[in-house]
Design a protein that fits this description.
single chain, alpha+beta, three-stranded antiparallel sheet, about 45% helix, ABC_transptr_periplasmic_BD
């Protein structure tokens, strides 16, 4: 069990924060940032941050549109025997959708859209 899971009840008393609703974590992150900014009276900073983020995502779209509609498999290696595969409901899915890129992973995922996979390394995955 991860440290944040062990301490969740304590963390919720300090700052009640939900990273994901299990459907659209990026939209939830935007909403949480806005709510936190309201609590801290930092609305202008949050608006600036979100505007810069949107500008960046928009500026990158032409680079990814060129690749066509081939599915993309998003992974990250955890250690020599484990990797995460990011599928629907992951933080990246909304961006893939915006860019018109199908997610290659259509299998099982957890709440945040990831699937942990163990593999045997034989020079490749």
């Amino acid at each position: 069990m991860a440290l944040h899971q062990k301490c969740w009840h304590v963390l919720r008393r300090v700052a009640d924060f939900n990273f994901s609703d299990g459907k659209q974590p990026l939209a939830m992150a935007r909403k949480s940032l806005t709510e936190m900014a309201d609590l801290l009276n930092l609305q202008s900073a949050a608006e600036t941050h979100l505007a810069q983020y949107e500008d960046f995502i928009r500026s990158m779209k032409p680079r990814f549109v060129k690749r066509g509609a081939r599915p993309l498999l998003l992974t990250t290696l955890i250690d020599p025997r484990h990797m995460l595969v990011f599928g629907p409901n992951s933080l990246f899915q909304e961006i893939l959708d915006e860019y018109g890129i199908p997610n290659a992973w259509q299998g099982e995922t957890k709440l945040l859209g990831q699937y942990r996979r163990q593999y045997r390394s034989s020079g490749g995955v």
